[in-house]
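#lab-general

N.A. 3:47 PM
ok so I finally got the sequence cleaned up, no stray characters, all 151 residues accounted for. can someone with queue access submit it? mine expired

B.Y. 3:52 PM
send it over

N.A. 3:53 PM
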Amino acid sequence: MENSLKGLTLAAGIIITCIIISLGFYVAREARDTAANGTGQINALQAEFSDTSKTMYDGTEVSGSEVLNVIRKFSDETFGIQVVTSKKKESYFYIYRFDPATGELGKKSQTDYKTAQDVTSPNYINPTGRFEGSVVKDGNGTIIGLIFTQV
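B.Y. 4:20 PM
back already:
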């Protein structure tokens, strides 16, 4: 009788231990899934905040001097800016070229901030002119360029 009681106590101890270990694994798995979900949300917020400096120009009317500031501000990024002036209704690309229809980024542009300030240059941007901005995204939703059209 004593041996059977010891056997039942041992079996109960083993079952309780297995239940506790199973609960531990369950809690660890839930914590991992929650952490992964939180990391995904943080990454989405970070991407949204990093694009804020570019999306603020979407549908906004800005001065030519602000367009010049944008060209200077993003000159070190893999990013394109297209400016359409009312002078000749031609468009010029700064920093990188891109296709507004497909959202594909092209080659590095030859025009830069200094040529945009040169009054004798065909791609001169009048600092007092008014421009309307729009954002161009690629197939993944990443902002690859801005278009400023003189109004």
